[in-house]
């Protein structure tokens, strides 16, 4: 086997102070680690309940003494305030009582580097309120639109701060941002309920000669179209959108939707390019990696893999393939089928499935129809659908060595893909010619999954 994985970790970072953590990874063939949520844990009343229900790794559970508590997150570094001069976004601070723990963690990272480990940061997103994320000048926290140029400037300063204080790290994974892609009402990623209309978004649209509110209105009208389908209309759409030029008439009749895609592409690109160039200005040797969604619906999220080659060193599309919970691929696809069916109860099941396949550019295996997507997936799913997603990635990026897809068992405590499915996924990955992946995340791995992962390491 010849895959080279990056292991992504989450708190407790304290487990890394134990030399056995690095030895465990090295013995299993892991030589690359991305540290997500660079925070210590402090047990307090009213904090977040931990360990989360998804934790399974014995080393993580032993930190919590196999019982649940509530914890607050303490930033690992105390910021160099000069790096943030002129910014309204303020970095989180660490109290002096954690100085000795930071020294221990610093030594652990040095030890990992001496053992041949490559270490990467995971970005503190400056556009959401979350652990390690910044505050405004008045101390408030919350969503900050990535179309605000200061969001990128903060991330650049934050990366420099980490690099100065943790010089053994050699790169950073940028996680998003993404526009939404789901259509099921009430979903976290519902694209019909996502649009930010802050002044930064309005200005960004204006600079492109576009009207943001008109584009949002067009999105509402499109949702109404999807709620008023019949078999004749769908069959006509399927018939006339075949071939390279088949969809031109449809897009020309929906110019504001096309403009909305242009707006998404442009604003995501502006943000990531600003971050990439800012980091490279100060840290030219730093590897900058950027995540995205899988190719079947990446366009809805504002990312274009071929265009991103100019402002990322490595691309990390998310091959999140589980069912039963967001943001899994099977979950999203099934939501499309179920939502279109619910909106149009008289539409035939055949046309619902065909329309979903046309929208997302996929084909369901005959032995695994969408109504079975909550069941464990057969090998054909990973060979055909997942395999096609990998082929799309390679075609769009051109260089498989620049691809490091994310894979995961689940998110937010949903049903996990089985160890056999992990083997099928890694087999398809290896056969595709992609040699690297990033696994989200260490704490969730059971022994049977660990055994499968180690089978495929170099």
- Computed over alpha carbons, the radius of gyration is 23 Å
Mean pLDDT: 92
- Helical content stands at 40-55%
Named at the architecture level, the CATH assignment is Alpha-Beta Barrel
The number of distinct structural domains comes to: 1
SSE-based structural type: alpha/beta
What would you say this structure looks like, in words?
- With 458 residues, the chain is an alpha/beta fold.
- The protein has a single domain, classed as Glycosidases (TIM Barrel, Alpha-Beta Barrel), CATH 3.20.20.
- It is built from 16 helices and ten strands.
- The protein has helices at 19-27, 58-63, 99-114, 149-165, 199-207, 212-226, 231-240, 248-252, 255-282, 298-301, 305-308, 329-343, 349-360, 379-397, 419-432, 447-455, and strands spanning 4-9, 32-35, 39-50, 69-75, 118-122, 169-174, 287-292, 314-319, 406-408, 436-440.
- Helix 6 packs across helix 9 (255-282) and helix 15 packs parallel to helix 16.
- The radius of gyration is 23 Å and the shape is globular.
- The N and C termini lie close together (6 Å).
Briefly summarize what is shown.
The protein contains 16 helices and 10 strands. It is α/β, with parallel strands linked by helices and 458 residues long. It has one domain: Alpha-Beta Barrel (TIM Barrel).
Task: Please give the structural blueprint.
Layout: E1 4-9, H1 19-27, E2 32-35, E3 39-50, H2 58-63, E4 69-75, H3 99-114, E5 118-122, H4 149-165, E6 169-174, H5 199-207, H6 212-226, H7 231-240, H8 248-252, H9 255-282, E7 287-292, H10 298-301, H11 305-308, E8 314-319, H12 329-343, H13 349-360, H14 379-397, E9 406-408, H15 419-432, E10 436-440, H16 447-455
Parallel strand pairs: 1-2, 1-10, 2-5, 5-6, 6-7, 7-8, 8-9, 9-10
Antiparallel strand pairs: 3-4
